[in-house]
């Protein structure tokens, strides 16, 4: 690695500690959904894997893995138990009123879409269909009563399907969180527990998938964020834009993966992610507030979840293997899916 790149890597390395103000300062531009603010081309050729999987990427991923394993090691100690107890105390109200918070936040989201008009679920999914805003307002009304929550859930599935038909499956792969929220509303409203899985776990997994997929996009299309970084150069903390986008993607992927890991790790990751999204609102305003409101409330619910499981040594030892498997799987799905839909499998990059 060149000396300048080593210095830049050290500049962003503290952010991979998963705590502290550098994460909030350094990833605001990356966490503001770039498709809402900048020009993009989903069908365009992504950056080659040989460029993504470079030495800087390996260095950053190694740091992220160390942080993840440190969190796993801490969980089974008295310190980890004390942290879980403290989290239980400070999040009691959120835990008690999780369903109410989800309904209220989603109601705000759907009413905001009605006011803005011409939008299907997210700001870049434009539509001229006149009944879409009114349909979203009706879905917001169904959240007033618990019995009609499933109607809103079914409506979200319909809107997601409609947007997929208009914009394509690859574009909507950014937003499985909407399907997770829809399933949460349906099973929670009907008091169901499919396959003995809690509704919160279903939406937690969908949030993890959403953010892991989004992190791949940061590596595949770093040029989409160039206008944001040019407008706010202080956010790179002295790193090159290329290294900054690699680091932002690694941070997001690691925190997203942590959402499906052990209780303390996922609760801390949820708190950090929620803080990042909230801080991004200060920079990017009401569009960001509306667009990310759903995932923020889900992250708060995950942070408040007091379910405990016994942490075994093998979970610490297996963390790197599962992390690597998840990273390889999402890279393959993203690049193979893009090649199949837009360029033919012959364009699939080879490392």
Question: Describe it for me?
Answer:
- The chain has 351 residues and is mainly α.
- Helices cover 71% and strands 2% of the residues.
- It is built from 17 helices and two strands.
- A two-stranded antiparallel sheet has the order 1-2.
- It is globular, with a radius of gyration of 20 Å.
- The protein starts with a helix and ends in an 8-residue tail after the last helix.
- The relative contact order is 0.18.
Short description:
This protein is mainly α and 351 residues long. The protein has helices at 3-12, 21-31, 49-52, 55-75, 78-90, 92-96, 98-116, 131-142, 149-167, 169-172, 176-189, 199-220, 226-231, 241-258, 263-284, 286-304, 313-343; strands at 119-120, 122-126.
What's the layout of helices and strands?
Elements: H1 3-12, H2 21-31, H3 49-52, H4 55-75, H5 78-90, H6 92-96, H7 98-116, E1 119-120, E2 122-126, H8 131-142, H9 149-167, H10 169-172, H11 176-189, H12 199-220, H13 226-231, H14 241-258, H15 263-284, H16 286-304, H17 313-343
Antiparallel strand pairs: 1-2
Helix pairs in contact: 2-14, 2-15, 4-14, 4-17, 7-8, 7-16, 8-9, 9-11, 11-12, 12-14, 12-16, 12-17, 14-15, 15-16
């Amino acid at each position: 690695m060149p000396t300048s790149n080593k210095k830049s890597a050290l500049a962003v390395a503290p952010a991979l500690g998963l705590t502290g103000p550098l994460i909030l300062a350094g990833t605001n531009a990356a966490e503001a959904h770039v498709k809402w603010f900048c020009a993009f081309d989903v069908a365009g050729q992504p950056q080659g894997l040989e460029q993504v999987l470079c030495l800087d990427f390996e260095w950053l991923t190694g740091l992220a893995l160390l942080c993840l394993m440190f969190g796993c090691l801490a969980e089974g100690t008295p310190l980890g138990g004390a942290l879980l107890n403290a989290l239980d105390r400070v999040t009691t109200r959120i835990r008690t009123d999780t369903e109410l918070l989800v309904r209220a936040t989603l109601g705000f989201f759907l009413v905001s879409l009605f006011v803005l008009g011409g939008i299907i679920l997210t700001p870049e999914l434009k539509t001229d269909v006149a009944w879409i805003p009114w349909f979203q307002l009706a879905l917001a009304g169904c959240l007033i009563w618990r019995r009609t929550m499933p109607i809103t859930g079914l409506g979200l599935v319909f809107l997601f399907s409609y947007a997929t038909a208009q914009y394509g499956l690859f574009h909507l792969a950014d937003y499985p969180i909407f399907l997770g929220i829809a399933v949460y509303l349906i099973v929670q409203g009907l008091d169901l527990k499919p396959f003995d899985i809690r509704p919160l776990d279903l939406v937690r997994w969908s949030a993890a998938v959403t953010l892991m997929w989004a992190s791949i996009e940061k590596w595949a299309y770093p040029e989409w964020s160039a206008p944001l970084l040019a407008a706010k150069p202080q956010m790179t903390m002295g790193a090159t834009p290329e290294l900054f986008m690699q680091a932002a993607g690694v941070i997001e992927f690691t925190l997203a993966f942590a959402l499906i890991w052990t209780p303390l790790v996922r609760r801390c990751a949820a708190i950090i992610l929620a803080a990042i999204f909230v801080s991004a609102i200060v920079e990017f305003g009401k569009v960001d507030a509306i667009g990310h409101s759903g995932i923020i409330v889900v992250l708060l619910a995950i942070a408040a979840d007091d379910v405990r499981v016994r942490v075994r040594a093998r979970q610490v030892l297996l963390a790197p293997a599962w992390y690597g498997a998840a990273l390889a799987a999402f890279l393959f799905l993203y690049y193979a899916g893009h090649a199949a839909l837009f360029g033919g499998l012959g364009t699939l990059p080879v490392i």
